[in-house]
Write a structure and sequence with these properties.
This protein has 377 residues and is an alpha/beta fold. The protein is built from 12 helices and 7 strands. Among the domains are: 48 residues, no CATH class; 212 residues, Rossmann fold (3-Layer(aba) Sandwich), CATH 3.40.50. 38% of the residues lie in helices and 14% in strands. The longest helix is centred in the N-terminal third of the chain and has 30 residues. This is S-adenosyl-L-methionine-dependent methyltransferase.
Length: 377
């Protein structure tokens, strides 16, 4: 309080002094004005100019000090949520989270020990911006109002139970709606649907029987794998029928992809493409990169991704690149050399034109490749 009053007093004295000096100079000019009608410009004395400059600089400096010591106004940054402060003392928070404080504070602004807010879109917005893993929260995740005891035992169930999903966060409110409005998104899990991964339409397709046969000829056992960007888990479901365990990374993006993977009796990993794979080093027999991995991923991020795949693959493991698309010239000059940095053996390398509207317009091509990691380095 005293410091602020002192600053105000100094400001008042400085402004009064400025006015007095200005008036003095003006009055002296009027008194010394000649009787002649011709106007005569009187030069301002240097000492007066220097005094005025000093006073104005003092006012400016004092004003800055006062602003720096002023109490925060209503437009200042909001307070950090208490649970965010508490959790930050227990575990590190991803550095990218701090680049989006508004979203992070909104996510952590909840009532502890009560129901969590229904904010899946907010959570995924943070994750896709690199804020992963998200900070933990001390609240109860929402569960469906009506539950079911008849969960599917087969990975290709004829019907998925609507009661197993909290639909309030999605535009569709049933699997029937999803199947109607998203025919090609994989929500029709019945075996009546197109036998994906079992038939081949071109050299770009690798069927599961072909993949297993090639792995056998390479003396590479197939027991455990990872499907990156696996959507609703169709590939992992097919492999489950072959007694192969496949983890599936997937994001929800407006539809219950993770829930569907789990309903099929599979393991969904809620992980974005730019984050480190949550698997230990050298433990996987194979990794499949699906349609989600394409030329829209920044080149440096792509490089980190393929080397992270190398990290989790065991010696002799297989990397399956399935329908990666890019411009033809970029595949030759950019992506093929990038993949070549791994030093893997080419088991299959097939290139074909991308014949949809975007592919024709942009001169895009598909690449399907099967590569084997060296046994030792």
């Amino acid at each position: 309080m005293g410091f602020t009053m002192g600053l105000n007093l100094l400001l008042l004295i400085a402004m009064v002094a400025t006015n007095i000096l200005s008036l003095y100079h003006l009055s002296s000019n009027l008194q010394s004005k000649p009787t002649s009608h011709a106007p005569v410009q009187q030069p301002v004395p240097d000492h007066l100019i220097n005094q005025l400059r000093t006073i104005r600089a003092t006012i400016f400096h004092l004003t800055r000090i006062q602003d720096a010591n002023a109490k925060p106004s209503s437009t200042s940054k909001p307070a950090i949520p208490s649970d965010l402060l508490l959790y930050s003392k227990l575990a590190p928070i991803a550095s990218s989270c701090h680049n989006h404080p508004d979203l992070l504070h909104q996510y952590m602004n909840y009532t502890p020990f009560s129901l969590c807010p229904v904010d899946d879109e907010l959570a995924e917005a943070l994750i896709l911006r690199g804020c992963h893993p998200l900070p933990r929260r001390r609240c109860f995740a929402a569960t469906p109002q009506k539950t079911t005891t008849s969960y599917p035992l087969h990975p290709f169930p004829a019907l998925l139970p609507d009661q197993a999903v909290v639909w309030s966060k999605y535009a569709c409110k049933s699997f029937a709606c999803l199947n109607r409005d998203n025919k090609f998104k994989g929500f029709n899990t019945s075996t009546v649907s197109k036998p994906t991964f079992l038939s081949s339409a071109s050299d770009l397709d690798i069927t599961i029987p072909e993949f297993l046969k090639l792995a056998k000829t390479l003396s590479s056992p197939i027991r455990l794998g990872l499907d990156v960007g696996g959507g609703t888990g169709a590939f992992a479901a097919r492999m489950k029928l072959r007694n192969v365990t496949v983890l599936t990374t997937t994001m929800n993006l407006g539809a219950p992809y993770n829930e569907v993977v789990a309903l099929r009796g599979l393991v969904p990993l809620h992980v974005p493409l730019q984050q480190r794979l949550p698997v230990f080093d050298g433990v996987l027999d194979f990794v499949r990169l699906g349609h989600a991995v394409n030329r829209w991923i920044p080149l440096v991020a792509m490089e980190f991704l393929v080397f992270d795949v190398d990290r989790v693959l065991r010696g002799g493991g297989l990397l399956w690149i399935d329908h990666f698309f890019s411009k033809g010239e970029d595949l030759e000059k950019v992506y093929a050399p990038l993949i070549g940095k791994l030093g893997y053996k080419r088991v299959k390398w097939a290139i074909g034109k991308k014949m949809d509207g975007s592919g024709v317009k942009n001169g895009e091509v598909y690449l399907t490749a099967l590569l084997q990691k060296p046994v030792s380095k």
